[in-house]
Design brief:
The chain contains 18 helices and 14 strands. The chain is α/β, with parallel strands linked by helices. The longest helix is centred in the middle third of the chain and has 24 residues.
Length: 402
């Protein structure tokens, strides 16, 4: 639309200049008035269309946030549906003596979390979350779960009421009664905006390197889905749409528990056969848990990118697997490994395992989810990592098959 308006104004300017230079011979007032009238008509027609320039903000500045900023920055500059400038909220930190936001704006790169990959020039970093989101029509939330509330509370009453939110956050909360509270629900209820979710097999540096991959976009509104698909999809980042929003979000969180188990397998020195068993059993518990929490969960959703694909890639290449392996091999504390291996980024798996175990305790369901339970007990120091193998060996799945 912006290009269309620009072309109309350019056309009008040419007509006006022609009159001034006398190219149209004589004092043809009728022709002149026609030109000015139709300039206004064309501009009003374009401005009144249902399409609009959506302003976009990315709330987060980690590796995944930066990879997504590369995508939406590129698409915003090549699609007239979106305003060209993409705002990016950067939780301020000093990197090699400079503010990270200043580095991103001057070097168009996030050397702290996604070094070696350029961000589009139209991505503008700010350290004030309200400034980033206030005028935005589409707000993309992509940050560690533990920072969600402290980051978003300043946005209460400060953003457009008709904004569209998109959560890329793979975790959830558990309240005092043992009930699950999805991040998208908290954002929806706290900010009073519609919130979709985007989950999938997406390791940040591979997405930034433009290796072919896919993701699942969950939204309840088809029109919203089509808008967001245009914002996120590229020839290397393919997006499928689904209305099974809660299941998509649960998959994104639960797979991190299974990834921790996979890392334990590697740390203990077991092979791919053992890891495959852990992944399969983990998938069965993911499906059972999601269907218990959300009875309308569709089995087909688990075979989308948000399900089995994300599970596989995380269990082989994700940070939860890497940290879990190091945890078993070194006996270091998780916070020490985070600082050493993730450079300030946070691990999602342990807190998700703890949250799930709380739910299972409250609902007396621990025996139905032994893999989830043993992972939490390992990473809270209650059991040694070798107990994972014992759990797999005696999993109820094998008893049921006899």
């Amino acid at each position: 639309m912006a290009v269309c308006i620009k072309n109309i104004r350019s056309f009008s300017h040419t007509i006006r200049k022609s009159f001034h230079l006398g190219i149209f011979y004589g004092e043809n007032t009728k022709l002149k008035n026609w030109g000015l009238k139709h300039e206004r008509t064309l501009l009003q027609s374009v401005s009144s269309r249902k399409t609009k320039l959506y302003k976009v903000a990315v709330i987060g500045s980690g590796s995944w946030a930066s990879a997504i900023a590369r995508i939406v920055g590129h698409n915003a500059s090549h699609n007239d549906l979106f305003d060209e400038t993409v705002m990016m909220y950067v939780r301020q930190r000093i990197f090699k003596g400079e503010k990270l936001s200043d580095i991103i704006n001057s070097q168009h790169e996030n050397p702290c979390y996604l070094p070696g990959f350029k961000l589009p020039d139209n991505v503008f970093a700010v350290s004030d979350v309200v400034e980033a989101a206030r005028n935005s029509d589409i707000i993309i939330f992509v940050m560690p779960h533990k920072f969600v509330k402290q980051t978003c509370i300043p946005l209460f009453g400060q953003i457009k009421q008709n904004s569209l939110g998109v959560s890329l956050i793979k975790s959830f909360d558990v309240d005092d009664s043992g009930e699950i509270r999805l991040v998208s629900d908290w954002l929806r209820n706290s900010l009073h905006i519609d919130v979709s979710v985007l989950m999938g097999a997406n390791i940040a540096h591979e997405v930034a390197a433009e290796f072919l991959c896919e993701a699942t976009l969950g939204t309840y509104d088809e029109q919203v889905g089509n808008i967001l698909k245009q914002l996120f999809e590229t020839d290397y980042f393919k997006v499928t749409l689904s209305t099974d929003v809660s299941t998509i979000e649960l998959c994104g969180a639960l797979k991190n528990i299974v990834a921790l188990a996979s890392g334990c397998v590697d740390g203990l020195g077991y092979g791919n056969n053992t890891k495959a068993a852990v992944i399969r059993l983990g998938l069965t518990e993911m499906i059972k848990f999601a269907q218990w929490f959300h009875p309308k969960a569709k089995l087909e959703t688990f075979f989308q990118s948000c399900g089995v694909a994300d599970l596989i890639t995380t269990c082989y290449g994700g940070r939860n697997r890497r940290l879990a392996e190091a945890f078993v091999r070194t006996n270091q504390k998780l916070n020490e490994l985070e600082a050493e291996m993730l450079e300030g980024q946070k691990l999602q798996g342990p807190e998700t395992a703890y949250a799930v175990h709380r739910v299972l305790e409250k609902q007396n369901l621990e025996e139905s989810f032994p893999l989830f339970v043993v992972v939490n007990k390992i990473f809270t120091g209650q059991l040694p990592p070798t107990e994972l193998i014992t759990c797999v060996r005696h999993h109820p799945q094998f008893r049921n098959l006899i």
